[in-house]
Amino acid sequence: MDNKRRAGPSILTFWIFLLQMLGNARRGAEGHGRLMDPPARNSMWRFGYPNPVNYNDNELFCGGYAVQWEQNGGRCGVCGDADNLAVPRPHEAGGMYGKGIISKHYSVGQEIEVEIELTANHLGTFVMKLCPNNNPRQEATQECFDRYPLYVSGTREDRFLIPLDTAKKEIFRYRVRLPPYVTCTQCVMQWTYYTGNMWGICPNGTEAVGCGRSETFRNCADISIVTSTGGIPPAFAGQLRRDNPFLLYYRDIFMPQNIYPLVISNDISEENDTDVYLQLIIREQVCLPSDAYRLLPGMLSWCETNCLRYPPNCPETLCHCPQVCEAIGELEGKEGADVYCMDLCIVYPPKCPKNKCRCY
């Protein structure tokens, strides 16, 4: 009898978790991903650009699965805002984050590297598109984006498929080709992420996760493309490029001195350079008071404001910024449980069940 009593809560917890996971699969878990290179409008504060801080810059998911598909009929703003929001939407031209700041400069036809950071990996595909807009006060249209798909280098595919063996939190870098005939003072690059965690009807009539209507994320970045005949300005060329005058650098005293990820002056050679400078990029998503201060009124807001800013003021004795989460207790080892914890905990404000998830 005692064994049955002890087994009861465990079985109940498992079924509650299973129902939660099935619910997430049907309606879509909250989104966690952003375009980092070129820096998107929602994320450019992480590189020092004078754009407002967006604490939930990894959640531009068309308002959420239910809003996108049940309320808005599958429609989404061109830069990830909910379609039903008043124009200008927050991340579109004229909105809070759509200031028209150019975050990267390229040359026509260039093969460029893009970087996407998924703070919770739900598999699926990425699609990159371009619109030569040339008017920071007017938002690009989806029809314009659809005319200029950016193909993955070496292919005729505009979709990048996320490998199944990637981690629950991952940074993806791959190359795409800019069109050989497009120049612009202001182009908008659109990143769209179609997740692979939805429950829906497959082409063969069966139902499974990964089929049907997908949860959708979108980000927009403002870039410029100059003609190759005139040559790209020296300030924006190669690894010495200066796209961002607001970016700060720091010296890593622990890095071996024969490694040179970045030199900060054209007249410094590797032979004479003894310092290694790295870019200061804010990658934390949520920062919380340390155990000694977690009950102090106002500390949650203090850690948010001071740690998630550029440059940060985040003493380790006061705040900590967890990067990954894993399931513990009754959920430990269950399929999908770690990503479930990432969805709940690595967001702001966090909704993290302490008896089910551990973050560090």
Description:
It is a single chain. This protein has 360 residues and is an alpha+beta fold. The chain has three domains: 196 residues, chitin-binding protein cbp21 (Coagulation Factor XIII, Chain A, domain 1, Distorted Sandwich); 34 residues, no CATH class; 72 residues, no CATH class. 16% of the residues lie in helices and 22% in strands. The protein is built from five helices and 16 strands. A five-stranded mixed beta sheet has the order 2-10-7-4-5. Strand 8 and strand 9 form a beta hairpin. The radius of gyration is 22 Å and the shape is globular. The relative contact order is 0.15.
Shape: globular
Query: What CATH architecture label of the largest domain applies?
Result: Distorted Sandwich
Q: Using the coordinates shown, work out and report the CATH topology of the largest domain.
A: Coagulation Factor XIII, Chain A, domain 1
Tally of contiguous helical segments: 5
Distance between the termini: 39 Å
Domain unit count = 3
Low-confidence stretches: 1-28, 257-274
| Largest sheet properties | 5 strands, mixed
What are the salient characteristics of this protein?
360 residues; alpha+beta; 3 domains; five-stranded mixed β-sheet; 16 strands; 16% helix; globular; disordered N terminus
